[in-house]
Amino acid sequence: MNRTTTTTAAVSQLVAMLQQNVHTVEVQFASNGRSYTYKAHAEMALKEGDHVVVETPSTGLTLVQVVKVHDTVKINAGSDVTYKWILGKVDLAVYSSLIQRENEILAKIEELKERKKQEDALKNLVESLGLSLDELKELVNPTQKAE
């Protein structure tokens, strides 16, 4: 890296270490299993297992999982690394409930389609035999005549 980038990165790291209500968070990328450190504001109240959005140079905005929340800023002040901010926490509970509801609706629709198919098949059978539905039911379930 050039000297300007190194100086800017070093100053950025020092500023992060001085800011109140800032700590660092280790996140893991599902795509490659690698972990990286990002800065986070304490008001996010992040904990292990939370899902957050971060920005990366290669993939842009990416969903990752928090694997460790540091109590303080854990930044290597001598490094050329520019630590980025976590953009936001993702509430997967809302997403999961939407998916669950959608799956329940789709299952009900499939049930109704199957019932309609059965009713249509029964109607076709009745018509092809030239019987009423009651006559067909009597044929299938004969009642016993009194003697």
The Cα radius of gyration reads 32 Å
Distance between the termini: 105 Å
Largest sheet: 5 strands, antiparallel
Can you list the strand order of the major beta sheet? 2-1-4-3-5
Which descriptor suits the 3D outline? rod-shaped
The SSE order reads HEEEEEHH
Mean pLDDT: 86
How many domains? The number is: 2
Strand residue content: 15-25%
Helix content: 40-55%
Number of strands: 5
Describe, in plain words, how this protein is organized in 3D:
The protein has 147 residues and is an alpha+beta fold. The chain is 42% helix and 22% strand. It is built from 3 helices and 5 strands. It has a 5-stranded antiparallel beta sheet with strand order 2-1-4-3-5, with no helix packed on it. A hairpin with a 3-residue loop joins β3 and β4. The protein starts with a helix and ends in a 7-residue tail after the last helix. The model has no long low-confidence stretch (mean pLDDT 86).
What attributes does this structure have?
rod-shaped, 2 domains, single chain, alpha+beta
How does the SSE layout of this entry go?
Elements: H1 3-18, E1 22-28, E2 35-41, E3 51-56, E4 60-69, E5 88-90, H2 92-129, H3 133-140
Antiparallel strand pairs: 1-2, 1-4, 3-4, 3-5
